[in-house]
Amino acid sequence: MPAVRAVSLSILPLLAALAAQAAPGAQDGAASAPTPTALAVGAMQIASDANLQVESVDVNVAADKIVYSYFLKNAGAVDLDLTASVVLPELRASQDNEETWTLAGDDPENPVALAVAADGAPVATTAELRVAALGLDRLAEVKGAQLPLIPFGAAADKALAGLAPETADRLAALGVVSPRDPADPRAAATADWALNVTRTWRQALPAGKMTSIGVTFAPIKAEYRLGKGDGDAIADAKDDLCLSAQTLAALQARLASGGALDAMEFAIDVSAPARWIDSPPATINVKKPKAESVVAFCGMDEKSAGKPIVIGALPDDASATQLSVVVFTPAAK
Questions:
Q1: Are the CB atoms for 204 and 118 separated by under 8 Å?
Q2: Structure pTM?
Q3: Cα separation of 261 and 252, whole Å?
Q4: Domain carrying residue 252
Q5: Which of these, 86, 184, 222, 269, could form a disulfide with 38 (CB 3.0-4.6 Å)?
Q6: What is residue 29's predicted lDDT score, i.e. its pLDDT?
Q7: For residue 147, what are the contacts with CB-CB under 8 A and spacing of at least 6?
Q8: pLDDT number for residue 3
């Protein structure tokens, strides 16, 4: 499971940035450690129809797996066959090595191990890929140079370092890689393309029936440790996480006493599955990695805070498209 560089879309970068500053090598003028970054995999989108009804949407979050469950009813007398898709996060190399991502694998068509099922039966999806540089599709050029499509990580670093000078210059002229530094012509180029992937399929919805669609993937989460002195950072994130005063005080007290917290941050896309029909707000369930873990997100039911699975309901707000979930676990001494 490679840790790789990428551009941040994290809602709460401050917590992770503080953890990076505290990492080895970040002191005494040394280069700071890259910041762990959480990215949201797109919620399922499906074509609208007058007879399509979205009965409910559930989001189940665990440390190694996220499952979106959609319950769709075809209220008509004719079967429906609708296009559906999931847009994966854009992957683009960091220019300054300030951020890190952790992907489930190195398959450019499916780096999050996404799988789809309808009523429990696997559904085959196809990948639509675009490799963009300067707004142009450069898939052929990247493949022709025998570069991996994921523009970061060990494989990309090795391939970029091995580019012949004339090839590197040609790709730089296209905006695909960085130009060579005249002061250090032997330095490897940096990828300057973005990989965009959409997984798509045709979804059958039998007339008069409910169909459950499950979309499962490995989250692109951020993991970092918070220690003494990071209590103010949690306070700064209070509104983003809707932390209660009691929970905030308990987390800060642990840090102030010299204890540490291991944090897992998830970015969840909560967009409605269909644009032209009404959808109920999604419910969310977060499984604690340990009994003593503390879960925080807006819309959480505080009565479930002490239970193994913390539940919540998202606000009925069509403009809300992304939710941040952070799980704090007391770190082992």
A1: yes
A2: 0.88
A3: 10
A4: 3-330
A5: 222
A6: 44
A7: 156, 159, 160, 163, 191
A8: 41
